[in-house]
Amino acid sequence: MITLHATIGCFWGGPAVAPTRGFAPMRSSVKAAGRYAPQASERGSRADRQAQAAAALAAWPAQLEPAVPARAWKYIVLHHSATTAGDVLSIDEDHRGRTDAAGDHWLGIGYHFVIGNGHGMADGAVEPTFRWREQLQGAHAGVHRYNDEGIGICLVGNFNEGPPTPRQIDAARTLVSQLAGRFAIPRAGCLRHDDIGNTECPGRLFPWDQIAGPLSVKDGWVAGSRMMPVHR
Ligand SMILES: [Zn+2]
Predict the structure, then answer these.
(1) Which of 3.40.80.10, 1.10.287.3510, 1.10.150.130, 3.10.50.30 is the CATH number of 42-219?
(2) 15 pLDDT above the threshold of 80
(3) 190: left (phi over 0), alpha (psi -120 to 50) or beta
């Protein structure tokens, strides 16, 4: 069931975001070594495809690989914090104060990654949260499908009032391309929050094309990704 709710800032108050305690991480359906195997839809020579696959693997930093088996992520969902300052701890505290429809408190911060803006976290710093380390479903999208299968990335700031910092943009672009390469997420699977819900997140001034515009394989995008534009 898909449940949509209006939001305050980026955050959802509805029942669809209730995290499940004790969730057992799914084992990725494709092992890392085989994930980049050429697909029928890919073009180019076998050598080209092998080079593209190697580039995607090389772009994935080992420190981002979780210690537990990775979920089979299919989407990346970008958010803003709708605050001028913040860090993982402040967002975690805020989210712990929220309750689901059953009255149970959220487990904590709903995102998998936070990117700082120099106010609370270093400008451009990327910090994984417990949801990434433990490969838990997110609590950020307001839609079960995108919480279960979507990696939630939050950039600190209110991008209705101003754009992210250049370092945030660089960090977000790099992280998105790395995640897309690692999990073979097509361009069409990279979304802004307002693509899937009734929200202003991540803000009118969010520089979508700079962060998730057409990217090269060098940036980590795998060959065969559908370059179908789904955004305005
Ligand atoms: Zn959001």
Answers:
(1) 3.40.80.10
(2) no
(3) beta
